[in-house]
Amino acid sequence: MSLITTIRNGIPCLQFPNLARCRQIDHAIFTREGGVSEPPYDRLNVASRNGDKAFCVAENRRRIGAALDGAALIFCSQVHGTDVRVISGGRGELPDETVICADALITNVPGSALMIQVADCQSIVLFDPQKRVVANVHSGWRGSIGNIAGKTLSIMKETFGCLGKDILAGIAPSLGPCCAEFIHYRSEIPETFWEYRVDETHFDFWRLTESQLQAEGVLSGNIENSRLCTRCRTDMFFSYRRQKVTGRFATAIVLKA
After folding, report:
1. How far apart are CA 22 and CA 30, in angstroms?
2. What are the two backbone dihedrals, phi and then psi, of residue 28, each rounded to the nearest 5 degrees?
3. What are the structural domain ranges in the chain?
4. Partners of 138 in the β-ladder
5. pLDDT of amino acid 161
6. Could you give the residue ranges of the DSSP H alpha helices within 4-53?
7. What is the mean pLDDT of residues 68-84?
8. Domain spanning 4-255: which superfamily?
9. Sign of the torsion angle spanned by Cα atoms 3, 168, 252, 79
10. Are 231 and 239 in contact (CB under 8 A)?
11. Nearest partner of 213 among 254, 253, 170, judged by Cα
12. N or C terminus of the chain: which is more exposed, having fewer CB within 10 Å?
């Protein structure tokens, strides 16, 4: 599929076509362009704990906030686990990054931009237009094995009464099957997931995520997959697999007031 390219406050970003048509939300996949960080974090790095200068990260985040019309940016301390955090309360009560230790965020609070930072891992944005609920999921290979996408949907159902058939989903640029090589997969990845191999050592985690979303009732036609590999496209995105010491790019979804 082809993502939509837009320029916001001078910063290029990408959008999923189906989600872009939803007036109740805003969302964006930011690239590495439009920021102030120096190599090897050039340019729009949003991660604060990878060696970049704090004032550069702060300015990059400020620019992203402006590009999202001043939404409150809600980051989390991602640990490659399967913890999901529901953000509730007014904007003045929202916690900051230092107190959220999770890999997925859910909210029905308007004006709260749920942010995920990635450099090969998947960001999976979710929206229920019926219940007006949004979520953003960080899923690396460990998160995929732990089915954090399915767990997030389950919590959306339990907490807000969401139905899988109503959910719209987008899988942001991430490590594609061309580059997702796991030489030691026999000891790292449970055998039940070996069906997602595309050859002896490469896995299609995009297809796995699609399967996990559909298992929770999400319709295949409601899942948009960017199919952009970050390791192949370091001109646009950060990639830990290719660059090791590098930045993190942001994806965001926000419920409009």
Report:
1. 19
2. -160, 145
3. 4-255
4. 123
5. 98
6. 17-20
7. 93
8. CNF1/YfiH-like putative cysteine hydrolases (3.60.140.10)
9. negative
10. yes
11. 170
12. C
